[in-house]
Amino acid sequence: MKKFVYIFIVLFTLSWGCNDANFLDREPTNILIDDQIWGDNSLILSVVADLYDRIPEFQTISNWWNYADFDEGFGSAFGDYWRHKNSDWGYGEWAINWKDYYKLMREVNLFIQKADSELTDDLQTADKARFVAEGRFIRASIYFEMVKRMGGVPLILEPLTYDFGGDPSYLEYPRSKESEIYDFVINELEAIKNDLPNDVNVKGRATKGLVLAMQARAAIYAGSIAKYGATTPNVSLPGGEVGIPASMADGYYTKALSAAEELINSGTYALYNKKENLAENFTNLFLDKSGNTEVIFVKDYKLQSGKVQPFTVQNQPWSSAEDLEGGRLNPSLNLVQSFELLDNTFSTFETNTSEGDYVYYNSPKDIFAGRDARLEGTIIIPGSKFKGKELDIWAGYIDADGNITTGSTYGQRKHFPTEADPEIPVVGYDGPIDELEFSAQTGFYCRKFMDTATGSGQRGLNSEVWWVRYRLSEVYLNAAEAAFELGNTTKAADYLNVVRRRAGFTTDLTAADMSFDRIVHERKVELAFEGHILWDMKRWRLAHIVWNGESVELTNNPEKADEVSNRIFALWPYKYYAPESPNHGKYIFKEVLPRVVTNADRFRLGNYYSEINDETVNNNNLIIKNPNQN
């Protein structure tokens, strides 16, 4: 790091108490010297709060627009239409700022050094061990986020200091192998797990359960890169900085399964099951902060502390909005049709008969009947309610000749010659209407993470719904994937069935049903809008296949992991207008490509690892760049 001298400056807090309940109430206000900080649990906790808050993330409820980068969602605001017009992703996408994160790493290393020194000897032994373990957890988390993006990076475990001797070359470290970073993360977590509390009620700090969950996630990533990286041999570097040997795959899968099973079998956590209605139950698991046994680790928000997030304001349905904003993120039909039928089969939505006539539905919800409860738990579909109000999602009237009457703004009214009223609504107040921002341009709104509390849709209040970083359901899916890859299809099916039963499935999958497609599908529907899609597609080496830049129609095989899905599609309900027909007033549906979707996304081989910029290489001659980016 030739040209940079990193100075450790930490902002500390003076606040009352040090329990988890007021963890969010800490705000950095003073810079304190060592002997004032390290003998006081509350002040050390202030430092920890700052470090937790700076762990890098991608696709969260605080930056919802990144959900529209792939095939899960559509950006319904004017400023996001470009996302559906761009063909190629830049090589610098999803990268970390090298300089900033090694500055953060230096701070974390210095925290660990101080916390593990004689400065903290006045603390209780368990408290001291916990703070050190938390520092090591945060460091492992940052390295995990870095390796996901960049591949192998310099592994620095001490706070480097420039001696002003004129030669900073001793501060230059080469990139470690990608496998060495994963090994560090997995081994570091193993080393600290017993120094952390095993407490289901601790959600904002590291616990033993969190360490096991992260071990399982990191190991499953490494294992799949090792296995499926063999299909993209050009995505590698000869020194191992990018790419993991296939021979290491089973070892990582074994570690993933071991960590996942240790957590599952501990009994500390349990899947959320509080509501009889299965869709409401799934929705509520992301909202309920009281006795939530599924959630393991969160980024929390609290109205009383002023730390809030705007996801509900920005994505509330327009017809029930509490402010002049909403509907910015529309789930795609690509995702919606991935939710299978409750008989364990996959089917696209029936819009036409084999003779070419429309299929008529009494209610706009009927087309979605008999499907995985997670569909309505994740997505607001036509005919649904939000905050007690039924939404108004329909695209217009269609007559027997196929002529469409619609509007250009929310709930627009027009004259119908055959109607007694001078004017009637000809389109729903929520749309869908092409290029009308905040409307449901795909026919859908988001439900997951949407706050149902009164006032949460107002800009002056916002929401305190937490961002769930780790939860038990993902651990079950990691266990299932690891078991499948190790050849234990019976165990894999058992773990998937635990998750699926909560979604309403009554017929269990068997070992014979297990396939890679099943593994991929289950993660897609269970973890939608939780920030997994990019990393999963990269580690399976599916990204360049599914997002291949070809402008193709929506797949009829949503259960296939390698089906192309690089343009966002919509499903629009229309009211059938034919007063003499028994189908008058019923609903028909049309599959639509929104007008602003003009290009298909293309993920190139060079996108598997983010670009290391010239500035970084110029500052450290030992750093080599990632492949396929010329």
TrEMBL record:
InterPro entries: SusD-like_N (IPR033985), SusD_RagB_dom (IPR012944), TPR-like_helical_dom_sf (IPR011990). Its main location: membrane. The keyword S-adenosyl-L-methionine does not apply. SUPFAM superfamilies: TPR-like (SSF48452). It comes from Draconibacterium aestuarii. This is RagB/SusD family nutrient uptake outer membrane protein. It is found in: Cell outer membrane. Residues 93-217 form the SusD-like N-terminal domain. Residues 293-627 form the RagB/SusD domain. Keywords: Cell outer membrane, Membrane, Signal.
